[in-house]
Specification:
65 residues; mainly alpha; rod-shaped
Length: 65
């Protein structure tokens, strides 16, 4: 019975490791998604800032004439 008990323990440990690996992978993917979303928000904010700056410069040029 000792061999079967050892095999059972090894199988349970392997199953636990696989589960932990899956959870870690899921978390890493979620982190990468969060990073990508944050980068997209920053890019959108920068575009809005640049557009506002360009609009304000244009309006200032119109005032000068």
């Amino acid at each position: 019975m000792g061999v079967f008990e050892d095999a059972k323990d090894a199988a349970e440990a392997t199953g636990k490791k696989v589960g932990e690996w899956a959870d870690d992978t899921k978390e890493r993917i979620g982190d990468k998604i969060d990073d990508a979303q944050a980068d997209a928000k920053v890019a959108a904010a920068e575009r809005e800032r640049d557009a506002t700056h360009a609009k304000n410069e244009y309006k200032e040029d119109l005032r000068k004439d």
